[in-house]
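USER:
Working in pairs, take the chain set out below, taking as long as you need, and write a paragraph about the fold.
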Amino acid sequence: MDAKEFSAHIGYEFKKLQLCEAALTHPSAARHTGARPFERLEFIGDRALGLAVSHLLFNAFEDHNEGFLAHRVATLCSKKQLLKIGQHWQVKKYLYAIGLQTDSANAIADTVEAVLGAIYLDAGFNAVLNVVERFWATDIMTTSNDMDSKSRLQFLLQGKGYPAPSYKIVDKEGPDHSPTYVVEASAIGKKALGTSTTKKFAEQNAAALLLDQIDESKL
């Protein structure tokens, strides 16, 4: 187990490295190290993850109801999702356990929650939110075909560490009772124009066109 290397690997620098060490010490090995109980970190990490995902979804899906949001939270906090993140983090390489397969699905998923719990205790909710936004953003963006273009664009960019896109009305055509809006969406040096009879849908159209310009693999 190398907590410092793991910390660098996930892009979060712990102020108290012992918290990271505790999160990477499975209960099977904790009695040999005196580390802070793994299960307590897992418990608070589970709650912090749920709140962070809920926060991100609440802001992304402004027009969707509680049932829609609850379903997405369940998906994005599931063991399957945690296993995916844990594999990306290479948890099995860093997890210290005795008499346990460190690549087991349960061990990896539990460790991801414990790490998030450690981050929460180390620096608070905003630190957890930043980590979740970076590593869950693509899955939040693709978790449903119902996500609108503006939300998909924002999560794509912020998930890669870029600022959120900006929108501005550059033209308004037609009579006052039936105008057509032209909105410019811009991000990472690219721009696209969208038109519609409402500002909201003009922004969506501009975002969709901007998404078409962006090659995600090159971000």
